[in-house]
Amino acid sequence: MKAFYQDFKLGIIGGGQLGRMLLQACPNLNIHTCVLDPSEDGPCSGLANEYTQGSLQDYETVYAFGKRADLLTIEIENVNIDALYQLEREGIPVYPQPRVIEIIQDKRVQKQFYLDHDIPTSEFILVNNREDIKTHAEFLPAFNKLGKGGYDGGGVLNLECVADIDKAFDDYGLLEKTIDFETEISVIAARNSMGEISVFPAVECIFHPEYNLVDYLIAPSSLANEVQQAAEDLARKVITDLDIVGLLAVEMFVTKAGDVLVNEVAPRPHNSGHQTINANDTSQYEQHLRAIIGLPLGSTAIIKPSAMVNLLGEEGYTGPALYEGLDKLLEIEGSNIFLYGKKITKPHRKMGHITILDDDIDVLKEKVQLVKKAIKVIA
User: Fold this and answer.
1) C-alpha closest to that of 144 among 170, 106, 163
2) For residues 280 and 301, is the Cβ–Cβ distance under 8 A?
């Protein structure tokens, strides 16, 4: 592979907000960027050196795009895996590797991987359709997850009792036993091509009660040190067992007994790492670049405690985005806003995020509520 600072082209498959923030980390390393995305004016369209509109699932489109790059990475897992395998066979590095993406693309395969590698996870049953779920009624309460295609809280249904089965997915998926957990956390790990591994401190994720996605997070976690260490050790095990090059976000449950269970993983920068841009020595985006290019990994030390609040489109509004309360938000000391460049808002769509820094965790939590009241995305 040619030197990354000399006529080097990084191909990024997917041009959403994660790709946008990855692009913003590239100029410091003088990286020329090429992005493929189905949207004509996606979040990356105004920032990439080269921007191509095209389907991420079409073999020929992904293959032709990949041939233009010296190294390929992704910002979303839902891509044509056959094209990535062929590009890898032809000598173009693809990180994370296609075999890793293929495991993670299908939650059924992903859960079986945990089982095969003694990675603690919640009990599950593979199902083929709604009728199949009816034969496992005794397993409820459980979450019904689609095998493929779920993203940002989609593809997940809570089945509390037999009466809920009629709303279950009539497709390949799984039933995952409902866990009586204390909290949900995330640990982002990185592994470079030399096998060096580094992990960011665990963050606590507070989920929206209706939308099944993160409302806000707090970093660092307030959990006992031994629980945080167990979570970081588990993230190291998962990234080692996957033998991945790149970034891996490991979402976990902490049970009321203090056990740590892996929920799901994502082989890319992740919503639970946005705060690292302001709050850590190295951001998750720079860390991903270091990992895939083959550079030493950066320090993950926390500069200051932080929170991250997802900025979602308001209920009842669809159309050109308007940000109401931006001035009020920026008056809150320690707040930083990141808008994703999406022209159209719709209910619950991720339109941006706000990071908040403060030395006092209690004050930080108070500012989270102030931020949530200050700004709204309407149309």
Assistant:
1) 170
2) yes
Q: pTM for the complete prediction?
A: 0.95
Task: List, in sequence order, every residue forming a beta bridge with 158; answer none if it has no partner.
Answer: 143
3-state secondary structure 156-221: EEEECCHHHHHHCCCCCEEEEECCCEEEEEEEEEEECCCCCEEECCCEEEEECCCCCCEEEEEECC
pLDDT tens digits for range 213-249: 889 999 999 999 999 999 999 999 999 999 999 999 9
Pairing verdict, β 9-13 and 71-74: parallel
Closest CA to 159 of 174, 146, 176, 141: 141
Amino acid at 183: T
- In this predicted model, what pLDDT tens digit does every residue of 281-291 receive, in sequence order? 999 999 999 99
How far is 192 from 129, CA to CA, in rounded Å? 39
Do domains 9-94 and 304-379 share one topology? The answer is no
CATH number, domain 9-94: 3.40.50.20
Paired residues of 310 in beta bridges: 353
- Residue 126 pairs in a beta bridge with 174
- Closest C-alpha to 378, from 294, 305, 296, 320: 320
Q: For the chain, give every domain's residue range.
A: 9-94, 123-177, 189-298, 304-379
**CATH 1.10.760.10 matches 189-298:** no
Which residues are CB-contacts of 99 (< 8 A; sequence separation ≥ 6)? none
Encoding tokens for residue 22? 């990855």
Tokens of 293: 């290019």
Instruction: Tell me which CATH code domain 304-379 carries.
Output: 3.30.470.20
Task: Determine how many CB atoms are found less than 10 A away from the CB of residue 351.
Answer: 21
Interatomic CA distance for residues 353 and 340, integer angstroms: 8
Please give the Cα distance from 128 to 147 (Å, whole number).
9
Helices (H) and strands (E) in the chain, counts: 11, 21
* Geometric angle at alpha carbon 146, from 143 and 149, rounded to 5°: 135
The reply to whether CATH 3.40.50.720 applies to domain 123-177 is: no
Cα dist. 211→37, 71, 293, 350 in Å? 25, 35, 36, 11
